[in-house]
Design brief:
This protein has 112 residues and is mainly α. The chain has one domain: Cytochrome c-like domain (Cytochrome Bc1 Complex, Chain D, domain 2, Orthogonal Bundle), CATH 1.10.760.10. Helices cover 65% and strands 0% of the residues. It contains seven helices and no strands. Helix 2 packs across helix 7. The longest helix has 25 residues. It is elongated, with a radius of gyration of 18 Å. The relative contact order is 0.16. It binds heme C. Heme C (HEC) binds next to helix 3, helix 5 and helix 6.
């Protein structure tokens, strides 16, 4: 019994390391996206994308939580163009390339 559980655990470990390194090689980096978000988006979108009510009022806009279904149902391409081209009361923001992929990965991490 003990042998079985040990080999099960080491299989999980190997699979975990394999998927981690695959994510590191190919996927956007949500942690880096969070750093960028904190610097460029948080004043309006608030901590964890919940929205800043004061800023929404000042802009007379509705800032939906970025983790909400309404935002999450948008495609990555839509989210990127919302940032780079602007959307509604939000002006375009200069974010490009890997930074844009990373900030979208961070927005995806906010999904409820
Ligand atoms: C000056 C304030 C401000 C800043 C800074 C800002 N936003 Fe926004 N953002 C808004 C407002 C206001 C809206 C709502 C626009 C509307 O619908 O009128 C919005 C909407 C969005 C949407 C669409 C949400 C929806 O309801 O579909 C996304 C995605 C988004 N912002 C991402 C970002 C990201 C990523 C950053 C940082 C790179 C950022 N925003 C920075 C004010 C801001």
């Amino acid at each position: 019994m003990k042998m079985i559980s040990q080999s099960f655990i080491s299989t999980c470990f190997v699979l975990g390391v394999a998927s981690l390194s695959a994510a590191g090689a190919f996927a956007a980096d949500a942690a880096a996206g969070k750093t960028l978000y904190t610097a460029k988006c948080r004043t309006c979108h608030g901590a964890d994308g919940i929205g800043n009510p004061g800023m929404a009022k000042a802009l007379s806009a509705e800032i939906k939580p970025l983790g909400s279904d309404d935002v999450q149902k948008k495609s990555d391409a839509d989210l990127k163009s919302n940032v780079t081209a602007g959307v509604g009361k939000m002006k375009p923001i200069a974010v490009a390339g890997g930074d844009l992929d990373n900030v979208v990965a961070y927005i995806r991490s906010l999904k409820k």
